[in-house]
Prior knowledge:
Blueprint: E1 2-15, E2 18-23, E3 26-32, H1 39-51, E4 55-56, E5 62-64, H2 66-69, E6 72-77, H3 99-117, E7 121-123, E8 130-145
Parallel strand pairs: 3-6, 6-7
Antiparallel strand pairs: 1-2, 1-3, 1-8, 4-5
Amino acid sequence: MRLVIQRCLEASVTIEGKVHAAIGPGLMILVGVENGDGPEDAAWLASKTAGLRIFNDDAGVMNRSVVETGGALMAVSQFTLTASTKKGNRPSYIRAAGHETAVPLYELYCSLLEKAAGTEVKRGVFGADMKVALVNDGPVTIIIDSRIKE
Length: 150
């Protein structure tokens, strides 16, 4: 599984012209699920996301987690995170997990993150044509891949 985690001042998901979900300060997380990913990937990423120290402390140093700041959380599925651009100019999504695998793992990640953070994770709609708006704070953007674990 791959995540793009963005520290934000606000974020929202609009579907068919209506705001589906919105958050204030916190984390906007894009979630990509690949073939071969499993529950252990979702668990590792949920723990890592909740504990990631990318919010400023009183000294202005990124030393606090979203849990410590009481920040909001939003997770949006995004199969394009699995893209391979190795060959040619048209991305290949052959590594993207199918619906039957990706949906349960995305939902598991969100549920485990809710438990780890102690707060609701707002969600997009899997497979929907979503318009995602974001005011990135910093900007701070972190990419995490459960297979690389770095």
